[in-house]
Amino acid sequence: MTNNEGVTIHWHGLFQRNGSQFMDGLPMVSQCPIPSPGKFQYRFRPFESGTNWYHAHTGLQRGDGVAGPFIIRESRRTDPNAGLYDEDRAEDVIFLNDWHHDTMVSNYQKHNIGKVRVGVDSILINGKGIPLSGSPPFVPIEVFNVRSGTRYRFRVINGANLFCNLQFSVQSHQLLVITGDGSALEPQAVDYFRINGGERYDFVLNANQNIGNYEVRVVGLGSCASASGDTGRQVASLHYETAWPAPMPPSLPNITEEGTPDIWWKTFPNKSLAEVDHNINSGRRYRTTGGAPDVQHYIETSFGTRESPIPNQGTHSFPQLNNISYFFPTSPIMSQFDDLPMSLFCNASSFQTGECEGLTQCACVHTIQVELNALVEIVLVNPDSSYHVLHPMHLHGLQFQVVAMELMSGATVQSVMQLDQNGEINRNLNGPFKDVVVVPDGGYTIFRFRAWNPGWWIFHCHIEFHLEDGMALLFWMGNSADFQHIPAGFPKCGVFPPATDRATPTDPATPTDPATVTPDPPLEFPRADEQQKLDTYHLAWIIPLTFLIAVAVGFLLGCLCRRHAYPVSADQGPGTVEFSAQIRVVPFTCRRPRCRLEYFLLKLFSDRSVDRKS
């Protein structure tokens, strides 16, 4: 990083397991940030094929462009959708993102401190497109070339940083959506679909229209707009072979926003993800979610008005989970758990009822612990209908199955809980498997997962500012006995002195009461007078020793100067020469100590005996 920031890279959509949990790229959970300058080699074996991507997970660097596709193609022999398309090309990957003419750190300061609305300056398709301002020069728009009569598999990734729920369509073409977040769906034939930040959808396009050029259209919904309110949008060109190239548009065309805001949380025109089945031919046993859940957790995704930690800033609206703000620990949990005090960790049960609903901000390393292989059901509730935000929630480490989604009047945790107790929530136990899902604005989303992958996996909103403000928590799956060994030479970082409130540092599954732990004794440094005594003592033996070494080296150099070297004439074979050294013998006639020392040195380095005369 040119600005000397540390960085980590997350491999979005990939399950890190069998020892590669340390390669997930989450700062201060799976690893230390990579220093600048510095290097860190990510080593892992991808567990599943699919449309994935990579991005920086430190600070706000993703919003400045540290992101891109990471595609792992499946063999046609095992792909349940292989018969639906003819071509699956690298050039048919579509990476969407919002772009800003200022750095994300600057935008964050404007938003949180200056209370200024931060909008998007452009929506980009593979890094190309026309800015919303319409001011030239323009970067050429992206072009996708197709051949008439051929079916193409396209892969779409929404790498948005702010809240940009994007509507995607192709002029005059129907789209057959076949996967979501790398997991196969029952194919959905639609004219358009909606894709939120972090999500990926694959679709098949049949190039069966008249030879020509057609617009690929992307439009932002809701608050995905410029600071002045101009709707975020972009176009690319679908170009049929043999057609004349499409001219560069002089400006961005208007693109119709389909549907009404109250259904924009639905992925398909009139169908939510919970109403779509996964493709049963792609199921894997580790993902089974049938039967009654072993545990159920309610998580409220909401905004809380809290006192700002910045002096003289008054109150701020913080996006939170269960009214708790997450902060990253001071050392990576997976590799340096023993260095962290247990007082950093908390969950909703750590606070008194109503304690986190006032102006005081409850903040910690928000953690929910689940047993390995337990079937977990999560009920997400978004009561903030006045904010009009669909939080795209992303889980690291594994996928979950979406079983229910719905709007409701007066959505609260209590009202959804009562609705469920009355049997009024229908669950689709054949729902799709995802790693990102939105929570309807004024509604709920329910998903399940099998906690098969031991580790610490973050669950967070994929809107950059929301994660930075603490809208996240960790799922702690398994215990120390289930974790893999830390890689040899793995980097360390943290604070000094390390944790002192832990009685059993080798077992993270046994937190202790801080009051029962004896703190480490304070470090003692020598006083100034003691340091002077130490320095005098060192000088008393260093000076004579240095003198003796200098005398010995002087005599040694004098003796070595009398050597003569010449080549030996013995034939060692073609192209070889052997060298030896001969010491000139000098008789001694001196008995003084200096002479005895010179004799000793000559004797030591000579290959002949020394003739000593009295």
Characterization of this structure:
The protein is of the alpha+beta class. Helix content is 12%, strand content 29%. The chain has helices at 104-112, 333-336, 413-421, 464-469, 528-560, 593-605, and strands at residues 9-12, 50-56, 67-72, 93-99, 122-125, 143-146, 151-158, 165-170, 175-180, 183-190, 192-195, 200-206, 213-221, 233-240, 295-307, 315-321, 324-326, 345-346, 362-370, 375-382, 391-395, 400-407, 433-434, 436-439, 443-450, 455-461, 472-477, 563-567, 579-583. The strands form 6 sheets. Strands 17, 18, 19, 21, 24, 26 and 27 form a 7-stranded mixed β-sheet that branches. The longest helix is centred in the last third of the chain and has 33 residues, at 528-560. It is globular and about 95 Å long. It starts with 8 loop residues before the first strand and ends in a 9-residue tail after the last helix. Residues 503-539, 561-591 and 604-614 have low confidence and may be disordered.
